[in-house]
Amino acid sequence: xxxxxxxxxxxxxxxxSGGLACARRASGQxxxxxxxxxxxxxxxxxxxxxCVPKKVTxxxxxxxxxxxxxxxxxxxxxxxxxxxxxxxxxxxxxxxxRLNGIxxxxxxxxxxxYLHGRAHLLNKNEVEVVLHNGSKEIIRAKKILLxxxxxxxxxxxxxxxxxxxxxxxxxxxTLPKRVAxxxxxxxxxxxxxxxxxxxSETHLFIRHETFLRTFDPVIQETIIKEYERQGLHIxxxxxxxxxxxxxxKWMTMHYTDKNxxxxxTLDIDCLLWxxxxxxxxxxxxxxxxxxxxxxxxxxxxDDYQNTNIENIYSLGDVCGKIELTPVAIAAGRQLANRLFGxxxxxxxxxxxxxIPSVVFAHPEVGSIGMTEQEARxxxxxxxxxxxxxxxxAMYYAMMPPEAKAPTAYKVICxxxxxxxxxxxxxxxxxxxxxQGFGVAVKMGARKRDFDSCVAIHPTSAEELVTLK
Length: 468
What we know:
- By secondary structure, the protein is α/β, with parallel strands linked by helices.
- The chain is built from 12 helices and 20 strands.
- Helices cover 30% and strands 26% of the residues.
- A 5-stranded mixed β-barrel has the order 1-2-3-4-5.
- The longest helix is centred in the first third of the chain and has 25 residues, at 85-109.
C-alpha cells in the first residue's frame, strides 16, 4: 500500500451540493482542515444534469408556451424560423461551466483542498483517491463524509441501451421529432412537459393510471388531465418488451398499454428512461469500512447523518431519504456545525419534516406536508378537515375555453386548532408561491392564521387565504 500522502480533519467524498456545503462550512466557518474529492464536475447532479439546466430548459418551454398563448391577447407573432435548440443547448452548457468555475473558486475562498479523482475507502479512517491523471494518494482523515449522490437507472429490457436517461437529456444536440419517456416521477413529468412545449411529439409511458403517485390525489388527477388536454400522449398501464434499432436515427419500441393490451409499436427518434435512481456506491469500498446499506444500496444514516461506523457520516441522495438539493445543502451545513462548531451546536441536525417540493411541470406543482390519506391515517378521519378549490386563473380570461389551464389548491388541517399539516397547489406560479407558504406551515400555522392574512388581489394565491 502507498504511504499516507495527506492528512486532514475532514474528508468529503462527493462534490455535489450537499458535500460542498458541508466542506465549505467546516473549513470556511469553523477552520477544520478539509479535503473534498469529486470524480466528475463540481456541483453534482443538480448543477450539471439536474435542477439548474432543467430549470433553464423549463424557462425556454414556458416562453414557447407564452408565445403560443399571446394571440389570445391580441399579439400577432410570426416566427421566422424553428426554435434553435442547438444554440440554446450550447448557451445552457456555457452557463453550467461558469457555475462549475464558481464552485471551485468558492472552495479556494473557504480554504478547502479540492482533489479531482475517484475515492475508495480502505478502512474507517483511510481513503485511496485515484486522481484524474492516474496517480494515487492515500488520505487519512479524522472524520469522513460520504455524499456521493446517485445515478439514473436503466432497465434490463432488450435494447434499453438505445435510450438515454435524464443525464443524456442534456447532451441532446437536436430536438427529437417523436420522443418516448418511460416513468411516472417528477423527472419524467418535467421532461415530458419540456419536450412537448418545445415542439416534440411526446409520449409518456406510465405503469399505472396516474403519475406523480406520491403526491396528493388532487395533484395526480389534475395534472394528468391537463397534460392530455395539452396534447401529450399518455400510455397508462404500460410496459415495454423490447427496443429495436430501425436506422441511424430511429428506433421501434414494442409495448403494451391500456389501449393496446395485446401489444403495439411506436417509432421514435428518442427514448428517455426515467424509472428511478440508485446510489453512487458501486466502487466506494463501503464493505472495507463496514458501512451498512439498505436493500436498495443506500447508505443508512440517522437523523444526525451518522452511519453505523464512528466518524463516518453520510447525507444527500446516497442515503435515499429526501432526494432534493436544498435538503442535502441544509443537512450538510448542520452536520458541519455539529462536528466542528463547538458545544452550542452539539445537537444540530436538519429537521426532515415539512420540506417543500416543487415539480416544474406545465403548470407547476407544489407540495408540503402530508397528503390527505397520510393525514387521515395519522390523525383519524374525524380529526381531519379539508379545504380545497379549483378555478381558472385570470391569466386565461382572454382565451377560449379549450385553451384554459387549471388551478387547484388543497389545504389539509387537523384538530380543533385546524393546524395546517398539508398544502398542495397546482397552477401558474406555484413554485414561487410555495416558498412563502412553506414558511407558514413550518411555523405551525393554523387555518385561522391563513384567514387572518389580507388577500392580495387579483392573484391566484389569494385563494389560499380565502378558502371556505
